[in-house]
Amino acid sequence: MDAKRERKSSLAPLSPCPIPDITDDELVTISVRDLNRTLKMRGLNREEIVRMKQRRRTLKNRGYAASCRIKRIEQKDELETKKSYEWTELEQMHEDNEQIRLDVSNWKNNSLKQLTVRVLPVHCIEVTPELTEVTQSHAVMAFRRFCKSLLYGLPLGITFLDCVGYVARVDGTSMQPALNPVAEERDYVFLLRWGLHQSAVERGDIISLISPKDPAQKIIKRVVGMQGDVVSTLGYKHEIVRVPDGHCWVEGDHTGHSLDSNTFGPIALGLMSARAVAIVWPPERWRLLKNELPRRRRPIQVAKASYYN
């Protein structure tokens, strides 16, 4: 850095101006058109005109460099001041947090002491070895009862969730107005697993199934057609589709705002996981979910009775 400054300081000064009555300040501020007119009026030769223009460019470049240098220094000073102010604020915040932590700890300790004195004075109970032994015995018995309840209850809970059903939250607006009629609110439904594959699924039922696009995601739709039915589609590659064996046709009630069979075709029956039977939350939405299918979405032709019909 010092060597660079020395090189700058060792540069030779500018040569004398060919026109003495034009100062450097005037030369920098004068426009190119006025400069050309002035040089022509003075009768300067080509070499002198070129030197004047070079002198003007040099002065402008030096002025620009000086202004940039001053601006950088001002920005640096401003950033340093801002940094110092923010560090001061940060230290003050640390001190305030530490003081609040100490106040909370002291308040907690004082409250516990006052509660102990009011509820259970020290002189009321004499802690004897017999009392200690009884207390430990009760604690051991309580722990054993808890472990026993857990061993019996955990398998029952898992069996209930796997075989009977569970409660799940419904996201999205694809089943409006039956589910989530208000976009900002979410319905919770009871999904029944019991008898799902025992001829319990019918047209018009709302079912939960594994998404054929993303196996990690579960979707909830209404059954429109069962295997063997002929259904009319909405935007599918074929206007009329015969549902293959082992499949069903599902759609969302909110037409045009649902990713369903009109997007990815018939759904394998093995992807069905549960049937939605009731809305359990919020309380004002408590109700059983009816089996209903709009007339315009009923199958064109219904297949003969089968395992799932």
Describe this protein's structure.
- This protein has 309 residues and is of the alpha+beta class.
- 45% of the residues lie in helices and 16% in strands.
- It contains six helices and ten strands; from the N terminus they run H-H-H-H-H-E-E-E-E-E-E-E-H-E-E-E.
- The strands form two sheets. Strands 1, 2, 3, 4, 7, 8, 9 and 10 form an eight-stranded antiparallel sheet that branches.
- It is flat.
- Mean pLDDT is 78; it is low at 1-12.
SSE arrangement, N to C: HHHHHEEEEEEEHEEE
The radius of gyration is 43 Å
Strand tally: 10
Outline: flat
Helical content (DSSP H or I, runs of 4+): 40-55%
Structural class: alpha+beta
Summed over residues and divided by their number, the pLDDT gives a mean of 78
Strand content: 15-25%
The low-confidence parts are: 1-12
Largest sheet: 8 strands, antiparallel
Give the number of helices. Answer: 6
Separation, N- and C-terminal Cα atoms: 89 Å
